[in-house]
C-alpha cells in the first residue's frame, strides 16, 4: 500500500513557525511504516524544504538560531467576510508550484490523509484537497486534525474529503484506512504502542517537536484542548528519553520543542524523571516550551533542573493578573504563584528577560483596562511579554460568551477579528507598549 500524507497551508493575516509540526500525522506515519505501508509526506509548512530557495530571490527567510522563523508567503484574495479589515491576507507555506511538482513526482497513492490546524485556516485545507482530487480523482481522502474535530459538521459539508475523522485513536484511524482501501493490516507487526515520530520523511530537519503527553487535566474557559482529547496520558519517561536521544544522535538535532499542554503536571513522576535521564545521557540540547508552562508547579528544584538541561527562555501561561478573571477562566494560576515561580527561575540562573509570559487580549468580558494593568504588572517584573489575541473555540464556555452563533463560519474564529472588539487603535497601543517594554 502507498499512503500520501499532507499538511496543508495556512491562510491568514499572519503566521509564524513557532516550531510547528503535524504531530498527529507523523504519529500515524510511524504506525503505517511499521505496518509495511510506503509513506510519503508533503508538509506545505516545511520552511526548510530545499525547493523553496528558488522562490526567495536570494532573500533568506527570517529565522532564529533555534529553528523557528517566518514562512514563505504569497498574498491571496481576501475572503469577503474580512472585507472591512485593512490588512493583506496570505497563503503561508510552500508555493503551489512546488506542491503540484511534488505531487507529479509521487507514485499514485492508495489513500491520502490530510490534517488540519486551526479552524479558521480551513481555506488552505480545502485548496489542498481540491488539488489532490484533480491529481488523484479516484483516491479516497481522509481529513483529520483540529479543524476536522472542532468543526466536524462544517468539514463534512464543505471540505470535499471522502471521510472526515473525528478522534485521536490510532487503531480507529487505521481501521478507517483499511476499510477505505479494502486492504488488511497485520497488526502483529506493531509490537509496542510507542514508536518514534516519522521525522525521517522530511528532506531536511532544523528542529524536532514532540509531545511527552496528550490531553490536559485543566478545562480553561478559553481553551478547547479537552474537546480534542479529554484524557491526560503521559508517555513513559524512558521512552521520551530514548526518542530524544535517537533524534539527538541520528539526526544531530539540538533544538527540541515540547508542545505538551501540561508538561509539568505530576512532575516527579514525569518531567523530573525525563530531565534526570537527559542529564545522565549527557544530552546537551536546547528545549523550548511554546505552549507555556503551568506556573503552579514550578519550584526551586524543578527550576534548577530546567536550567541544567537546557530549557531556554521558558514561557509561562499567566493570561491575566485580574483575580476575578483568573478564577472565571479556570483558576490555573494566581499572582502569588506567579511571583514565586519567577523567584525560583531567577534563583536557578534565569535572567528576567529570558522568562516569557503569555497574556491574553480579547477574552469575552475582558476590558482594555484589565489588559493594561496586566502589562503594567509584568513590566514591573521585567519579564518578556507575549500578547496573545483571543480566538473563540466552539463548545467552550468563552465561545458562548463571545456572541458568535454555534454554526458561525469558522473564519470568524480568527483572532484578528476579535482585536476589533476594542478598536484596532486601542489594542495597537498596547501592542506598541509591549514591544517597547520587551526591547528594554
Structural class: alpha/beta
- For the record, the count of structural domains works out to 2
- CATH architecture term of the largest domain: Alpha-Beta Barrel
Number of helices: 16
Q: CATH superfamily membership of the largest domain, which one?
A: Aldolase class I
Point out poorly predicted stretches. none
Strand content: 5-15%
The gross shape turns out to be globular
For the biggest sheet, the summary is:
5 strands, parallel
| CATH class type of the largest domain | Alpha Beta
Task: Please list the strands of the largest sheet in the order they lie side by side.
Answer: 3-1-6-7-8
CATH fold-level label of the largest domain: TIM Barrel
Gap between N and C termini: 56 Å
Number of strands: 16
Report helical residue fraction.
25-40%
Rg from alpha-carbon coordinates = 22 Å
Average pLDDT confidence is: 93
What does this structure look like?
- The chain is an alpha/beta fold and 440 residues long.
- It has 2 domains: 2-189, Rossmann fold (3-Layer(aba) Sandwich), CATH 3.40.50; 207-438, TIM Barrel (Alpha-Beta Barrel), CATH 3.20.20.70.
- The chain has 16 helices and 16 strands.
- The strands form 5 sheets. A 5-stranded parallel β-sheet has the order 3-1-6-7-8, sandwiched between helices. The protein has a 3-stranded antiparallel β-sheet with strand order 2-5-4.
- Strand 15 (356-361), helix 13 and strand 16 form a beta-alpha-beta unit.
- It is globular, with a radius of gyration of 22 Å.
- The N and C termini lie far apart (56 Å).
- The mean pLDDT is 93.
